[in-house]
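Justification of resources, computational component.

The compute hours requested in this renewal are based largely on the per-chain cost of generating structure records like the one below. Each record pairs the submitted sequence with a full structure-token output. That output is archived, and it is also reused by downstream analysis tasks.
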Amino acid sequence: MTRRTRPALGVLIFFVVAFGLGAYFTFAAVQGDYGLFRRAEIEAESRALQGQLDALEGQVARMENLTLRLSDEYLDLDLLDQQARDVLGLLRADEIVIR
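The structure output for this chain reads:
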């Protein structure tokens, strides 16, 4: 009967390769392109972009309202007077301008 005193080289290689693969896949799951940290970054960016989208939708709704109020079907005379004063610099004959 012969006894081995040193561990088998194949078993040692197997455990080293298994540990290396486990470490690689763990690192990739946390730090990789599709890892947990990247997912958190994408979710934060998504929330920021959703806020920007909401702000832009509010601006579009405001501009649509102003456009409707200046259209031929619905003319808001106060808004028309305000735009004429702001854009064209028009004044009434009885007004005095103080700068």
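The helical segments are 9-31, 36-69, 77-88. The chain has a mean pLDDT of 87.
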